[in-house]
C-alpha cells in the first residue's frame, strides 16, 4: 500500500475504532465492581472469586484453583460451558441461572451496561489467555 492510500485507509477506519474503544471503556467501568473478587488473568493468585481468564468456551466452574459451590460443580459435571449468551443471561440474573451459587452479587439491570460488560469480558478474558503477552487487566 502506498503511504497516501494508507492515510486514507486510516481515516476511514477511525470512526468504527473509536466506537469500539468507547464500548471497551464502558465495559471496563462496568467490570470495576467485579474486580474486587475476579481477575481476567490466569495468574492472579487467590481471590474471593474464580479467575475469569479465557472464560468463553471454558467449563462452568472451570478454574482448577477455585473451590466452587455445589451448583457450579454440578454444572461442571454436566458439561456446561460458558458462551457469550450464557454470560449475558448470567449477568442479568446470576442467582436465577445458578440457584444457590455463592456469588453475592445481584444482576445488572441496565441492558446497555450488561451488553458492554459481556463484550468486555469476552474480548479481554479470551484475548489475555490466548496470548503469552501479559496485559495489565
Ligand atoms: C463479592 C465477590 C464477587 C463479586 C463482586 C463478583 N463475583 Fe463473580 N463470583 C464470585 C464467587 C465467590 C463465584 C463462585 C461462586 C460459586 O462457587 O458458587 C463467582 C463466580 C462467577 C462466575 C462463574 C465463573 C466460573 O468459573 O464458572 C462468573 C462468570 C462471574 N462470577 C462473573 C462476575 C462478574 C461479571 C461480576 C461483576 C458484575 C462478578 N462476578 C462479581 C464472587 C464475586
Structure write-up:
The protein is mainly α and 137 residues long. The chain has one domain: Orthogonal Bundle (Cytochrome Bc1 Complex, Chain D, domain 2). The protein is 51% helix and 0% strand. Bound molecules: heme C (HEC). Heme C binds at residues 33-34, 36-38, 48-50, 52, 55, 60-63, 68-69, 72, 90-91, 101-105.
How do you describe this structure in short?
The protein is mostly helical. The chain has 5 helices and no strands. The two termini are 34 Å apart.
List keywords for this structure.
single chain, Cytochrome Bc1 Complex, Chain D, domain 2, 51% helix, disordered C terminus, heme binding, signal, Cytochrome c domain-containing protein
Helix/strand structural class: mainly alpha
> Mean of residue pLDDT?
84
Number of helices: 5
Which radius of gyration do the C-alpha atoms yield? 17 Å
Assign the CATH class: Mainly Alpha
What count of structural domains? 1
Which small compounds were modeled alongside the protein? heme C
* CATH arch. level architecture: Orthogonal Bundle
Q: What is the percentage of strand-forming residues? A: under 5%
Question: Which oligomeric form is depicted?
Answer: single chain
Keywords: Electron transport, Heme, Iron, Metal-binding, Signal, Transport
GO molecular function: electron transfer activity; heme binding; metal ion binding
Organism: Sneathiella litorea
Protein name: Cytochrome c domain-containing protein
Amino acid at each position: 500500500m502506498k503511504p497516501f492510500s494508507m492515510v486514507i485507509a486510516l481515516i476511514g477506519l477511525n470512526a468504527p475504532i473509536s466506537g469500539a474503544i468507547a464500548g471497551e471503556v464502558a465495559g471496563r467501568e462496568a467490570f470495576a465492581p467485579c474486580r474486587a473478587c475476579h481477575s481476567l488473568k490466569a495468574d492472579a493468585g487467590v481471590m474471593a472469586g474464580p479467575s475469569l481468564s479465557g472464560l468463553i468456551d471454558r467449563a462452568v466452574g472451570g478454574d482448577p484453583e477455585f473451590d466452587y459451590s455445589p451448583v457450579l460443580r454440578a454444572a461442571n459435571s454436566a458439561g456446561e460451558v460458558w458462551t457469550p449468551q450464557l454470560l449475558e443471561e448470567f449477568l442479568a440474573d446470576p442467582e436465577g441461572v445458578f440457584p444457590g451459587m455463592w456469588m453475592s452479587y445481584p444482576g445488572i439491570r441496565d441492558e446497555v451496561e450488561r451488553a458492554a460488560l459481556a463484550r468486555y469480558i469476552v474480548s479481554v478474558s479470551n484475548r489475555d489467555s490466548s496470548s503469552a503477552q501479559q496485559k495489565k487487566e
